[in-house]
Amino acid sequence: MSKRRLVLLLSTLAIGVLAWQLPAILKSIPSRYVAAYLPEPIQVLAERDHVELLPTAAVETDAVSLLNPDPVTTSEVTIVATPSTIDAGNDGQDSSLAVDDLEQNEPDKLHSDPEPSIRPSSAPTELPLIPSSSRLVPFKHQFQTWNNCGPATLAMGLSFFGLDLDQELTAETLKPNPEDRNVSPSEMTAYVNNKTELSAINRVNGDLYTLKRFVANGYPVIVELGLEPPGEYRWMGWYGHYLLVVAYDDASEQFWVYDSWFGTSDVPVENADSDGRQVSYSDLDNYWRQFNRSYTVLYHPEHELDIETIIGTDIDENSMWVRALTVVQEELEADPDNAFLWFNLGSIYNELANYENSAAAFDQARAIGLPWRMLWYQFGPYEAYYHIGRYDDVILLADVTLLDRPYFEESYYYKGLALDALGRDEEARTNIDLAIRFNPNFEPAALFFDQLENSS
Q1: Are 220 and 160 in contact (CB under 8 A)?
Q2: Pairwise CA distance, residues 271 & 141, whole Å
Q3: What is the torsional sign of CA 421, 422, 426, 432?
Q4: In this structure, which topology does domain 111-315 adopt according to CATH?
């Protein structure tokens, strides 16, 4: 064989091996670099493995009984260091972002410029009827960097109050690891309350009229909702997303929102008209209810009574969850095959400490079919199954969520809880340690790690 033919053969073999190994090589590269620097066909090759839907439960569920509007009861439970118990007594705010935990070289507070010209009513108990249309200005739009929807949307909302924050600054606290796929509403709320002179509150069970009242009275509001990427990006599948509501118009039944990902086009980070993206009332509500109609409102502390007036009965958390239960039960009567509604029902029963009902609702949601990214954003199934001793379900769902994507401190944390309950001490410590390493600000993991150390 000639030298030339040998070189050609070896080159062909090398190219073949490279092509065969290319997907594995790409998967070893952090996702943010793949998304930022490689063309779409290569991004498809780099896509990590995943199931199409979250796996179903191995038990049968009597879901129909959960729709009976029986009186709400709570059960006696042993409380461990879960995110919900860490938040207790802090009005739903994540204490993992307490001021004492922030870096010493950061300012204690971020000062805002004078208030915008639009101000809410000074009468806290008698807010006027809202107009048929309203718009808040000004806002500074920011296109998100990789997986930075939460920090970018919060920075846009705070720009209304004159805070010129880059999303990288908000992300330093909200998601210290850039691969973190999720920033929860409680984390954003805590950032505002602990890092700025402004206030924020998060609630669920919102409605379109409440959103309009916030806008009409001068308060920016962030909603968490599901998103089916538009146009040629539909292949990416369902995601959780944040939108900043900036305007509404009853005549056209449209909201205008600031979208950190798609701006005002069907192509990510391409175009962002200053008016914002138009979203119909019906479309926003349909995708909003996939997250139990969660909303976060930003305001000056001296306007707290106005905020309480707009929110109404739901300002009391227990009342909010009881009312949310009735709303979701009624929606399920009309739409019993909606997996998101069953998931909402499970989340509500968690908050009411009825974990048997919660687990049954999550079982039904899984039986119908939940997007494989669902536990990137909401963690109710972990909590419900853990509390009733279904530790194998916790571990299964955590493993599926973490498959090829070790980016979720909550999944590591709950898996650690389940492993500890099963007596697998070393594996439990490993997972809790991974949660802390991934997000040092995630206080539930740190507290539970201390419990493990003290018990050893």
Answers
A1: yes
A2: 10
A3: negative
A4: Cathepsin B; Chain A (3.90.70)
Segment (H or E) for 234:
none
Rounded Cα distance between 327 and 251, Å, is 26
Type of residue numbered 349: Y
Q: Would you say 195 and 172 are in contact if contact means Cβ atoms under 8 Å apart?
A: no
Task: Write down the pTM of the prediction.
Answer: 0.81
Residue appearing with tokens 């979701």: 328
CA distances from 83 to 92, 186, 195, 373, 444 (A): 10, 10, 21, 20, 6
Output phi, psi for 292, to 5 deg. 60, 25
User: Could you give the CA distance from residue 363 to residue 339 in angstroms, rounded to a whole number?
Assistant: 10
d(CA 230, CA 237): 10
Residue-wise pLDDT for 241-296, tens only, equals 999 999 999 999 999 999 999 999 988 888 888 999 999 999 999 999 999 999 99
Angle at 153 between CA 150 and CA 154, to 5 degrees: 85
Strands 199-203 and 221-227, by their bridges, are unpaired
Two tokens, residue 200: 């924020």
Residue extents of the structural domains in the chain:
3-46, 111-315
Angle of the 380-387 helix axis to the 355-368 helix axis, nearest 10: 130
Paired with 248 in beta bridges are: 134, 255
